[in-house]
Amino acid sequence: MTLHASLTGTPAENDWVRLPGNPAFATVLDYADSGGKARVAPFEMSRRPVTNAQFLAFVTANPRWRRGAVPAVFAEARYLDHWRGPLQLGNDVRPQQPVTRISWFAARAYCEWQSARLPRWAEWEYAAAADGSRSDARADPAWRERILSWYAKPSTHALADVGTGSADVNGIHDLHGLVWEWVDDYAAMLVSSDNRQQGDKDILQFCGAGALSTKDRENYAVLMRIAMLSALEADDTTANLGFRCAREIPGATP
Amino acid sequence: MKALRRCLALFLIATSAGAAEIALPSDSIYWLDATLSDQSGVTAPLSARRGKPQLVALFYTSCKFVCPLIIDSAKGVERGLDPREREALNVLLVSLDPARDDTAALASVARKRRLDPAHWTLARTDDGSVRKLAALLGVRYRALDDGEFNHTSALYLIDAEGRKVASTSQLGPVPDPEFLTQVRAALSPRP
Q1: Chain A: nearest CA to B38, how far in angstroms?
Q2: Please, which domain of life does this record's source organism belong to (chain A) (predicted)?
Q3: Which of B134, B142, B145 minimises the CB distance to A190?
Q4: pTM score, two decimals?
């Protein structure tokens, strides 16, 4: 099997976009301890979600992450089950489509292989606030409407290739409108229905203060993402859940 | 000759144990490549805990409220066992807070709570491994700005091969009866 150089897993230098961050980003996650502000340090994010071709290069180089070889504890049975084989995409799966049906463990391992990591939620939300001309377009009802219309679309047809939608003001594609994306700290979103609905005996579930409420209740699109992510377990995979990587700015002190 | 025969027997036992080590079940948490450092500063891979059922929980030493209850709960389970069962069970508590929970902090808790080092391991590991271990167990947590953690609290029963068998979030010195039954079942000798 051969791969074109452009389809292999190593992103070229210009696949990373540098974002300046925000010391007090207004997140929709309104934790009691943080007052709804998140510190987002400068970081880099990949321009596009990870593709099937890139993920194929990863499993080719890392046999223990191949379908059928990965321990069940790291990825459930549906892991990559739309590919024809462990090292074959097949005719129905295009190389430039975003990879989906990958678990948090697998997504994390891919980013580590790239000397990177998964974006944290606050980083993702901060980047995804942009539109084509503004770094934070969230107050604009038209922005909300446009994003929401994607979530309202049934997800029955095949996913588009990555990067086909227009880039935002930072040069980043597909934060909305293509796939859901894993974040590193999905498990820090303590909003699963289990936690909300527990009775008295489970009041001790949480150690310490800091329960979550959500501010900006009009921002349905982002709230839906939070609801979805908070319901996932780390070995879960879905047909519409992909990921992209982030990394510290090389040479910068953390 | 007798000595030789004994030697041979030992060799056979050793090799058959070696063969059994090879096949780790696919749903075992011991696939996680993590290094634990315990309350004595001794380091070992997580997978070295294979072979005995474990009670496992995540905690942190500066936690005032729920974390002491996690220790109470594991002690409560131990008290509900007969001596043979108690001997066969280990307890592993891993810190959510590796930045502050150094060996001395872990040792201090172990001493104050009189945790028998033959059965109780209080451990720290790197930040990424904590996140992965939490994900394997199903623990959700978030660091708060004031140094505390918001986290779901449960005691997990892991079998000798590293499979998650049961859990309870009913914490306290009186063990959850259903959980205790599951622990005793896991400790019962194989037919």
Answers
A1: 23
A2: Bacteria
A3: B142
A4: 0.86
